[in-house]
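Aim 2 progress update. The chain analyzed this quarter is reproduced below.
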Amino acid sequence: KKKDVSKGRGEVASIKEMLDYMVSYQGVDTKQVFVSGLSAGAAMAVALMACYPDRIQAGAIFAGAPYKVAKSAFQAMFVMWIPPNKSPKRWAKRVMQQNPGYTGPYPKLIAVHGRLDYAVNFHHSWELVQQWSFLHHTDPKPDKIEDAFAQVKDVCRLGFNNSQGQEVMVFYKIKNLSHALAIDPGNLPNQGGKVATFSVDKNFHSTYWVAKDFGLVK
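Predicted structure tokens:
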């Protein structure tokens, strides 16, 4: 619902209050706050990044979509399969309206999407990159393309830099993956996860690589 992803209202405000509590009572480092989510959880993670950019350092969006891609639950069901095609500026406007006058940096975006996603059209992540590119004052053309990333033939990593040369967006495109997390069961430091309904063994532990993109793994 629109009210649940708008600043100061509904569910997104409730999660922000939980974050404030943790910062106040558990001593959480405000410069080490990250969000992630899959599918509907990805939509909420994007909403947090859009509504409270000064509180979130980076977000990992698994099988997600641009902020406010739909205005109602009914419309959301429709656009999941048929993503709207808008310019970066038009997409970004939906984010900037949440914080008029905000001139600070926006969270780093890490998008992860399976190319065979049957639930959320893969092209939603391209639209998300378009939206965030405008917010980061860059363009949606990758500065670095790594095919067979981490020696996994089905994974391609795209890196996007701003004018200062800082990587501000990452997009992992994963072949032969549907609406699920990519994992790599095992005991090595870069392995983990268990095969289940929404997790598929792709020899690629996406959680590990996202943690590296967050700067949490050296």
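The chain is about 30% helix and 20% strand. The radius of gyration is 17 Å. These observations will guide the mutagenesis experiments scheduled for the next reporting period.
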